[in-house]
């Protein structure tokens, strides 16, 4: 049963360790087909989070700006979203559509993600589903505009978070990773998957 925080539905420990390990195996195949890259911000600095995607669309960022693209920066199509990941969407999203993008974010020890909104998708009524694997990450939730009070929440390996309704447009980010808090990934770090309907 989920915990409600600012309109986010948090399912702590939704995935047991065998399910988490199976997801990591499926993600190894995704990353083999579509290698992780460091997106360039429009300001010309690489993001500290490394990314790739699965699905019809992937999220890319370069000097032309942020956008969804049907191709990896190397030019090829993205691999399909693993069935293990689609099952989680069906269980928690409440959506009658299928996700068109599974963004894979990899956080090494020092990586972070500044406060931002996700508004490149066509229909904000469609939820976003996030899956956390590996080391704990400190997630911060802000407001519908920049500034104001924020709330923080640790996301742990196996947690699932659903952003629907008003929560869909809140500013959010990852302040820091807590190294050594999970043994799921042999080299440490944190993986976050976000599932989205793009069109
Ligand atoms: C709230 N990812 O990929 S997951 C992102 O842990 C992103 O990698 C973070 O923010 C991460 O855009 C946070 C939780 C999350 C994901 C998408 C959201 C929260 C969200 C979209 C709208 C509102
Ligand atoms: Fe986001």
Percent helix: 10-25%
Structural class: mainly beta
- CATH class categorisation: Mainly Beta
Topology pattern, helix = H, strand = E: EEHEEEHEEEEEEEE
- Approximate strand percentage: 25-35%
Distinct ligand kinds: N-(carboxycarbonyl)-S-(naphthalen-2-ylmethyl)-L-cysteine, fe (iii) ion
Strand order of the largest sheet: 1-2-11-8-13-6-3
Write a structural description.
- The chain is mainly β and 199 residues long.
- The protein has one domain: Jelly Rolls (Sandwich), CATH 2.60.120.
- Helix content is 14%, strand content 35%.
- It is built from 2 helices and 13 strands.
- The chain has a 7-stranded antiparallel sheet, with helices on one face. A 4-stranded antiparallel sheet has the order 7-12-9-10, with no helix packed on it. The protein has a two-stranded antiparallel ribbon with strand order 4-5.
- The longest helix has 17 residues.
- The radius of gyration is 16 Å and the shape is globular.
- The chain starts with a strand and ends with a strand.
- It binds N-(carboxycarbonyl)-S-(naphthalen-2-ylmethyl)-L-cysteine and fe (iii) ion (FE).
Features:
binds fe (iii) ion; four-stranded antiparallel sheet; seven-stranded antiparallel sheet; 13 strands; 199 residues; binds N-(carboxycarbonyl)-S-(naphthalen-2-ylmethyl)-L-cysteine; Jelly Rolls; mainly beta
């Amino acid at each position: 049963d989920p915990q409600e925080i600012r309109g986010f539905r948090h399912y702590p420990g939704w995935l047991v360790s065998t399910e988490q390990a199976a997801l990591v195996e499926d993600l190894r195949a995704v990353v083999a087909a579509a290698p992780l890259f460091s997106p360039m911000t429009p300001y010309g600095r690489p993001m500290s989070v490394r990314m790739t995607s699965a699905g019809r669309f992937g999220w890319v960022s370069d000097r032309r700006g942020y956008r969804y693209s049907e191709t990896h920066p190397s030019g090829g199509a993205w691999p399909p979203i693993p069935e293990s990941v689609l099952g989680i969407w069906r269980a928690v999203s409440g959506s009658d559509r299928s996700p068109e993008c599974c963004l894979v974010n990899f956080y090494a020890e020092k990586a972070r993600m500044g406060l931002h909104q996700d508004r490149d998708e066509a229909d904000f009524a469609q939820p976003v589903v996030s899956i956390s694997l590996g080391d704990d990450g400190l997630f911060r939730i802000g407001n519908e505009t920049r500034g104001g009070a924020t709330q923080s929440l640790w996301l742990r390996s196996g947690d699932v978070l659903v952003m629907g309704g008003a929560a869909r447009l809140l500013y959010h980010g990852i302040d820091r990773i807590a190294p050594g808090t999970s043994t799921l990934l042999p080299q440490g770090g944190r993986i976050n998957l976000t599932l989205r309907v793009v069109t």
